[in-house]
Amino acid sequence: MAHSFADITPPIALTPLDGRYRGQVAPLVDHLSEAALNRSRLVVETEWMIHLLDGEVIPGLRTLTDDERTLLRAIPEDFGADGIAEHAEIERETVHDVKAIEYYIKRRLAGTSLEPLAEVVHIYCTSEDVNNLAYALMIRGAVHEVWLPAFEALIDDLEALARETAEVPMLSRTHGQAATPTTLGKEMAVFAHRLGRQARRIPANQMLGKINGATGTYAAHAVSVPGADWERIARTFVEHLGLTWNPLTTQIESHDWQAEVYADIARAGRILHNLATDVWTYISLGYFRQRLSAQGGTGSSTMPHKVNPIRFENAEANLEVSGALLDVLSQTLVTSRLQRDLTDSTTQRNVGPALGHSLLAIANIRKGLAGLDVDADAMAADLEGNWEVLGEAVQSVMRTLGVQGHEGLDNPYERLKDLTRGHRVDGEGMREFISSLGLPEAEQERLLALTPQTYVGLAAELVGHLDDQRG
């Protein structure tokens, strides 16, 4: 009988993010794991206690000493392996993760000067007051401290490649067919520009929070301390945590801001997916050569000549998984039945996998780009084999002259179509056609000097617009 892997210690990971790819996504564990959730809950609970006592919200209770504030703030800071195990033990008794957090804190206040104030822990709070703020802190940390720096580093890589290859001419392919030439750098700059817009959108998203009780009415607060300005107390606490206060909610903070963040990250991922498929195609055309040393390991298990573009293929797959998860999060988190249901509790626990697959894709694209060499000769040969792309230039000059009143230049589009459509035209054939048109000398000389390699318009200069978004 085969061994049961479920019984092996240490436990075998179920998902590739916690197994095969653990090293590449490990930084997210500090922000989006279950342990990180509980640490963030500890932050919210202890800071709420400090906020209430130092703000003298509850009549008759004293403010805290510096040592007591330090004691409270040390509780989440010291939450490590032993604390995780202890919280799990308490939760097995409470069968409630947030209540277990409350009891965990009270254990640490026992025997201290704060023991008489232990009932202030979690006072006036429903679980969602703690959870919505904890998730906001977690997501802010994961996005701003882990995901966004990786994303911006990829954009930096892409901008560097765009600038290095700004003047390297390349045949374009619209609808997969040979088209007006461009430069490799300009095409890379397009992606850098698109991704840069998303990099600016994502940190601009507000991250909202609330602490207003079981149905968002401050009912328990107002009946317990009717003289307090509870909206001000809630707003200043949420802002103290570095979040934006949401004044109108049900039991839950509505999660609309989360949907906005996830939609932006998903969109960024789809642009990255487009980049990965385009680079893959350029590799297949021979415009890029891959260095096996940079890709790592064996290129193909049976064909020794091959270096497979695995980094970009891996990125595609991970971006598809990430996008699907982010879409689900965006679609489901904005809905809650009446004043509360628990579907968001399970859904939010999948933020980690959603960002993990995205982070893994970013790492693979960066490694893939770092392992590429530009083959300008291959691009030049491709251009040399497609002189017919100059048909656009010739007919555009003819049309310009025609509307200016020059005779003998009728039907320029149709004449170039007859010459080029379905036919391969070499340099000699194109120059003979140009010479037969009877163009004014200046225009004729300009067109005769034109080649597919030089017919790139302002492509190189356009790369300079990357500086605009950094200004």
From TrEMBL:
Pfam families: ASL_C (PF08328), Lyase_1 (PF00206). Its EC number is 4.3.2.2. It comes from the Bacteria. Gene3D superfamilies: Fumarase/aspartase (C-terminal domain), Fumarase/aspartase (Central domain), Fumarase/aspartase (N-terminal domain). Residues 19-315 form the Fumarate lyase N-terminal domain. Catalyzes two reactions in de novo purine nucleotide biosynthesis. Catalyzes the breakdown of 5-aminoimidazole- (N-succinylocarboxamide) ribotide (SAICAR or 2-[5-amino-1-(5-phospho-beta-D-ribosyl)imidazole-4-carboxamido]succinate) to 5-aminoimidazole-4-carboxamide ribotide (AICAR or 5-amino-1-(5-phospho-beta-D-ribosyl)imidazole-4-carboxamide) and fumarate, and of adenylosuccinate (ADS or N(6)-(1,2-dicarboxyethyl)-AMP) to adenosine monophosphate (AMP) and fumarate. PANTHER family: ADENYLOSUCCINATE LYASE. This is Adenylosuccinate lyase. The lineage of its organism: Bacteria, Bacillati, Actinomycetota, Actinomycetes, Micrococcales.
